[in-house]
Structure formats: structure tokens, C-alpha cells
Design goal:
With about 120 residues, this protein is mostly helical. It has 7 helices and 2 strands; from the N terminus they run H-E-H-H-E-H-H-H-H. A two-stranded parallel sheet has the order 1-2.
């Protein structure tokens, strides 16, 4: 996995505000990769960022991740989907334009270094 991509994904996740969520696809579009690559980065290197704020497009997570995410969602006021398999992403999706602006500032040094 490309180190620059990993850093861009992790910094993007750090920009998602508490109480908000985004999908793997939202982040993929932001950093210029695919949703599966975003998931792979988070699976391998995402332990130090707020990974629970990233779900699939329906607001769902795998059962093992969901069990770990639920207390964090509750703490941040992120409501559960009625089926209990994820969050209400429609009600809690981050402002994607704002996220792009924040990510641009957070990765400016990476863009400069990449030349």
C-alpha cells in the first residue's frame, strides 16, 4: 500500500467531526481511491483514528466492529439504525464539502512533499 495514500486516508478520517459519519465511498472519492482501499487502510492502520465514524453506504459495520463502535456512537450522539445493524448515516453524515476543505488543509504538507 502506498504510504501517501495511507496518510491521506488517515488524515481524512481525523477530519470527520464527532457525532458525524461518512462512508468508505465518501472518503474514497475525497482521497482518489476506491472504498475497498479505504477499508484496507483502516483495517491495518486505523486504530489511532476515529474509525467508528466510517461505515458502508448504509451506515453499517461488520458485527465485530459494530460491537466496538456502538458505545462510541452512543457517546457522540450518533443514532442507531432501526434494524440495529448500523447507524443512521442519513441523519449523521458529515458535511462533505467542509470535510474536503478540512482535508485539504490537513494534507497540504503531503501535497507539497509529493511535488
Amino acid at each position: 500500500m502506498d504510504d501517501l495514500l495511507v496518510e491521506r486516508v488517515l488524515r481524512a478520517v481525523e477530519q470527520v467531526p464527532p457525532g458525524r459519519v461518512v462512508s468508505y465511498g465518501d472518503l474514497a472519492a475525497l482521497v482518489g481511491t476506491g472504498p475497498r482501499q479505504v477499508g484496507a487502510v483502516l483495517a491495518r492502520w486505523g486504530g489511532s483514528v476515529p474509525w467508528w465514524r466510517v461505515t458502508d453506504r448504509a451506515g453499517r459495520l461488520r458485527p465485530d466492529l459494530l460491537a466496538r463502535a456502538r458505545p462510541r456512537w452512543e457517546q457522540e450522539g450518533i443514532g442507531l439504525h432501526p434494524d440495529g445493524r448500523g447507524c443512521r448515516i442519513g441523519a449523521h453524515r458529515a458535511d462533505l464539502d467542509r470535510l474536503a476543505e478540512d482535508h485539504g488543509r490537513a494534507t497540504a504538507d503531503l501535497d507539497d512533499a509529493a511535488g
